[in-house]
Specification:
Length: about 575
Amino acid sequence: MGVMTINGRRVAFTDEKNVLSVIRKAGINIPTLCYLSEMSTFGACRLCMVEDERGKMFASCSEIPRDGMTIYTNTVRLQKYRKMIIQLLLGSHDRDCTTCAQSGDCRLQDLAHKMNITSVPYHDTRDVHTIDTSSPSIVRNMNKCILCGDCVRACSELQGLGVLEFTRRGADALVSTAFDRPIAQTSCVNCGQCRVYCPTGAITIHSNVDEVWEAIGDPTVRVVAEIAPAVRVAVGDAFGMKDGAGVMGMIVNAMHRMGFDEVYDVTLSADLTIMEEAQEFLERLSENRNLPLMTSCCPAWVKFCHDQYPEFEKNVSTCRSPQGMMSAVLKEYYRDPENSQGKKTVVVSVMPCTAKKMEIRWKRNYTRGQQDTDIAITSTELINMIRDFGLELGDLDPEACDMPFGLGSGGGVIFGTSGGVTEAVLRRLAPNHSKQLMDNIADCGVREKKWIREFTVSYKDRDLRICVVSGLGNARIVLDRLKAGEVQYDLIEVMACRGGCVMGGGQPVILGRTPRDARTAGLYRIDNNESVRKCDENPLVQNLYKGMLKDKAHELLHVHAAEETR
């Protein structure tokens, strides 16, 4: 504890880890490019430099606050210093901003505008690097890299993968993969967190928007869309709405206007996932076989387990993800000539996740040898499509999803946040849907604000040991402890991205803030307003099992041969 003087104003501090945190606590937003509070301090960009009363300058992100310190954050000297840093970064940066996928959402561009930089006196002398488009999920353009290290630390510290690293030295320094291999030839799991933390256009989403527009423009094609739960609380962020606002109805309206023939809700197939996964869980419990059951909704996690912990592959649920289930059901529905009406059906999924672009290619998810999800786009790509079409989301009236696949339960909605799958499973196992019981489930530990949540719940004559983990680096901790015999669980839910799908690699990135809590709260609000909160009480689910899924549930809702997940 102590008191600092910042720009002549006394500011008390307690447990802030650095001077930068105290400055922000005082309501002063000095620029940074490499500082991320969830990761280690790197101190590369030097934009957060401040000046003390003796004229000494130091990086505030790496300085521990001390009682009695006096600093200044915006002297003329600091202004010139920061402007020169941005100019130097721009001087070694591909400045083709007009065609950059990150233009308008680029932190470097934003700082250049704020600092009124109108010229760059330095010339780029670096080698031109080939753009890496090998991944189905991300594109790497190292000509736009500013060596901030954000992607390196996200991959290593948050995800525990270490696919990206600094190579070479000095002016030749570069962020690359081992032996400079294309990203698709590495252990990358396509989670897209490197893209989330990249402040420029060096790592962007591999766009499939043109394919969608082509399908929409083809009169012989019926284009049907499925929208994941987490999308509805993120798209509004990009249109100036309150963080975490639920805008599903507006999204449906926009997609109808853009030419999608039908728009369906993936919360329905999330309900199907829980129906199948809960049954699989109970069967394994009764047989004491392949426990703990590990969830299979997150393809980045599934690939991580396949590549790095093959001994646990038998523990991963055989259920397809909600995307996989929904697409299989849609393709089966439109195989009926009465429903297809002579048109080819193209299924487009709208996901918060870049790894879904990888998942749709896995043959283990195919039905009768045919790919079910034709195109996967992210929330960010959908936002670009809405803007391209000339729509302002906030001006649109909400519309309902189309039937017969437009109704999901509240349990399906909360799939978009870490712990949501587990909570939906516990609701499925619950004997009723009373408010008291739903509240008890929510309070059992499943919603704790921890990356690793461990808790026990009673079920019939036994206690179920459960672990909910988000972030692959944290998943590695759990799996290593499991291998060592230090812990025992019956059920483990894993999401590759910290906080779950609400912070997926395909979600819009909001400059200057992290909307994780707001998006999670938004999903819980939607859940609370649903009249159906348990998957088994969804009438559409009941009708599907009595009709289309009769004798076909395993074929359409579960993976087949455990083929290479690459």
